[in-house]
Write a structure and sequence with these properties.
The chain is of the alpha/beta class. 47% of the residues lie in helices and 13% in strands.
Length: 221
Amino acid sequence: MKNFKEAKAILFDIDDTLFPSSRFSSLARKKAINAMIKAGMSATYANASAALLKIIKKHGSNSPHHFDFLAKKFKCKNKARCIAAGVHAYHCAKSSFHPFPGTKKTLSLLRKKYIICAASEGKALKQWDKLIRLRLEALFLQVFVSELRHGGKTPAFYKKISKKLKIPPKKIIMLGNSPQKDIRAAKAAGMITIHILHGKNKQKCGSNARISKISQLSRLL
């Protein structure tokens, strides 16, 4: 497509685009719950897991107090010990973070021709932590993060990125797995969009192109 050839910059979503965050989050939560139970929290894994999901839904995925709230839901022999066990297990599980196959190689090739940036939402500290753990941080010129209290990834967020990069939206590609946050919002801002089919959101959503893995970008561009 002609508009791909005119692109000057590429924005990448992080979660479930650069690495399988949903799978790793599920694994980390499982390890944390088992550690808390082992440390003295009186709960079955099923009950604790259901309670934790409700806590995350209520307080948001970026809250630093998930395990504090969970420890209040069940009887603990020593609350502080249970919370600490959960936090420790969760962070140890993060050491297993790995990018999708071909991600680092593809980014390294693309940055020779394009301005490469990340565009995510949530807490800036947490997004940088992910990139550093993935050992990808050096490949990005800038990392743009829209906090949820500011509306998350909206057309206005993408327009702001365009202004900061001093590149018109029509010459910026946004790649991500979320139909609404990565594709429709960026498209509404005037950007080129590529839907990467990771996770549950694989339905057509009006993107300029669809790919199943990040290594396919090289051929597309």
